[in-house]
Design goal:
The chain has seven helices and seven strands, in the order H-H-E-E-H-E-E-H-E-H-H-E-E-H. The chain is α+β, with helices and mostly antiparallel strands.
């Protein structure tokens, strides 16, 4: 209780204001930083959608070559590519061709491999067509041959054999301090059921994360070193404009994309 005083603002009120500020200020700071981080993630999501279009276009013109598709996707995502320079994530802006060429020569960018994490910057997964959709022993599929592009009224799936379907995963390195680990922890909470996270159910029903970074989960391994990375995914479909070489490109035997078409 404050002593009576002629001062309309007793000294004890200043202590109360300090306590209230200590409680509210962290929440306010997180709110501002969280808005910035979510805004950047939304920008990354939009760019990933465009990167998926550029990647599938490169694949349709280059015999579904995964490496060329990944390079096309990475070229789109390059403005958001960042690297740890010791004091946090560093993102260099790109305003002209010279800036693009300079950033393309960053360590690991040209090879599409993060130097400090077992992850690609941009990964392309072929969702279809599958190798099982073609006759055994075939080496080449003519993209404009009607027998592959039509399946009939009762077999719609066969008509998709000359359509390249891909999923682009951009491994987004979260650059905003404090907000990055909060959002990362919320997005990868091990107590959230797999069904709610659009993943395949594990034997235990819950997502088993390696928080120590010693297992096979590269995202958890990076987070254990305070490097917070979230995958942002987008899909796209386009009709092939070049032949599929089954022996060269090794089409997948099953759809390993995280969400089906």
């Amino acid at each position: 209780m404050c002593a009576q005083s002629a001062n309309p603002h007793p000294r004890c009120e200043s202590g109360q204001a300090a306590v209230e500020s200590a409680i509210v200020l962290p929440l306010f700071v997180f709110l501002i930083l969280g808005i910035l981080q979510l805004g950047l993630m939304h920008q990354a999501r939009l760019l990933t959608k465009y990167a998926a279009y550029k990647a599938v276009r490169a694949g349709s013109l280059n015999n579904a070559d995964v490496q060329k598709m990944e390079r096309a996707a990475l070229a789109v995502m390059l403005p958001l590519v960042s690297q740890d320079r010791g004091g946090g994530e560093y993102i260099a802006s790109i305003n002209n061709a010279s800036d693009f060429s300079k950033k393309w020569t960053w360590p690991g960018v040209m090879s599409n491999q993060m130097p400090d994490a077992n992850l690609k910057y941009a990964k392309v997964t072929v969702c279809g067509p599958l190798s099982s959709e073609f006759k055994g022993g075939m080496k080449e599929v003519d993209f404009d041959d009607p027998q592959w592009s039509t399946g009939g009224y009762d077999d719609w799936q066969k008509g998709q054999r000359t359509k390249l379907r891909i999923q682009v995963t951009f491994n987004y390195r979260m650059p905003i301090p404090f907000a990055n680990w909060v959002i990362h922890a919320a997005a990868r909470n091990k107590e959230v059921p797999e069904l709610m996270r659009m993943g395949k159910a594990s034997s235990g029903g819950l997502k088993s994360l390696d928080r120590g970074g010693s297992g096979s989960d590269p995202y958890a391994a990076a987070a254990s070193r305070r490097l917070y990375i979230l995958p942002i995914r987008a899909t796209y479909t386009m009709r092939m404009q070049s032949n599929l070489y089954l022996t060269k490109n090794k089409l997948p035997s099953s759809n390993k994309c995280l969400f089906a078409f």
